[in-house]
Design goal:
Elements: H1 3-7, E1 14-16, H2 21-31, E2 35-40, E3 43-49, H3 50-58
């Protein structure tokens, strides 16, 4: 199976590029996953991971509720 096929499956956790880091963290907790794909209209623009949350948000002393996930995704 190709990665492209895996990324388009419905059970993959995805979030809209306009969502906040807090939205992404809530989705990751709800789905019990360590990462979510970021994009819109089915196009994947990147991935947001637990490490992105820790290094790019928490360690940088940013507020998860006000930071767009697209600004800190991998």
């Amino acid at each position: 199976m190709k990665v492209r096929n895996l990324l388009t499956q419905q059970d993959v956790a995805r979030i809209d590029q306009g969502a906040t880091v807090l939205d992404a963290a809530h989705l990751m907790a709800k789905r019990e996953v360590g990462a979510v794909l970021v994009g819109d209209d089915g196009a994947t623009m990147g991935i947001f991971t637990e490490r992105d949350l820790m290094v790019r948000v928490i360690a940088a002393d940013l507020t998860p509720a006000s930071v767009p996930v697209i600004d800190v995704m991998t």
